[in-house]
Every structure is written in C-alpha cells, then in structure tokens.
Amino acid sequence: MGSAHYTLAAPIPLPVRAVKGNEQVLQDAFQNRRTNIQVESQGVVTKILSDDSDGSRHQRFIVRLSSGQTLLMAHNIDIAPRIEGLKVGDRVAFFGEYEWNTQGGVIHWTHRDPVGRHVAGWIRHNGRTYQ
What is 79-111 written as a DSSP string? Predict the structure, then answer.
C-alpha cells in the first residue's frame, strides 16, 4: 500500500454553516441531477454498510437529513482514519462533495487531499473530526 499518512484531528470548533440552507441545496441537487457540489450539513446514521474495497477503500453508511433525504457517505479510509464506534442513530456532521444518484446522492471527499488539488473535507462524530 505504500506509506500513507493518516490524520485524526483533535476536536475542532468548526461551525456547521447554514445547515438548513445546505439541505435545500442538497434537495435541489438531487431533484435536478446536479453533481460536484461542495456542501456542509448533518444527519442521522440510518444504516451501516460494508466497506467498499474496490480501488481505494471507503467506509460506507447512510445518513438521513432532517428533510428526509438520504445520502450515502463514502469516507476514504486509505487517506483518512475510519470513524470508530459509528452506529445507527448517531448524528454526524460532514463537509464533502455531493454526487447525484437515484437514491439521494453520495457524499465523498470527506478527507484532506494528499496532493492539495481539492478542498479538504471532514466528518465529525462524537466530538472528533476525521479527515
């Protein structure tokens, strides 16, 4: 695998910016099949899925927003640490890139970019920020 560098940041007081506004952005993106939208929001974990190990490994889980929209979270665990202790019913905040799909969409780029070409994303769970 090479020598990957992992970062588990200490809790950072990052405010969740315009969560309700971003939920509207996410609803609009889903309804209009838009993609590549950087967004910050939060939701409740409704399902834990198996890791995707095809190519880069991703921790996968479903989050339901307060609007009812569901999102697949695809968190790259070859770059960022695994979100430990994640379970159904947990609240997570996230900053990442939205990609449209028929089930509500996917959020990815929830980590730093090792080569610095993409804005760094993150997932916050139980007071810790994973990126």
Answer: TS---TT--TT-EEEEEEEEE--TTS-EEE--S
Give tens-digit pLDDT for 113-124. Answer: 888 888 899 999
Q: How many CB atoms sit inside 10 A of residue 52's CB?
A: 16
Q: What is the pLDDT of residues 3-12, one digit of tens each?
A: 444 444 433 3
Q: What is d(CA 43, CA 18) in angstroms, rounded to the nearest whole number? A: 14
What is the rounded distance in angstroms from the CA atom of residue 100 to the CA atom of residue 67?
Answer: 17
Dihedral sign for Cα atoms in the order 125, 128, 129, 131: negative
Note whether 44 and 61 are within 8 A (CB).
no
Beta strand extents in the chain (DSSP E only) = 8-9, 37-48, 58-64, 70-76, 91-99, 106-108, 122-125, 128-130
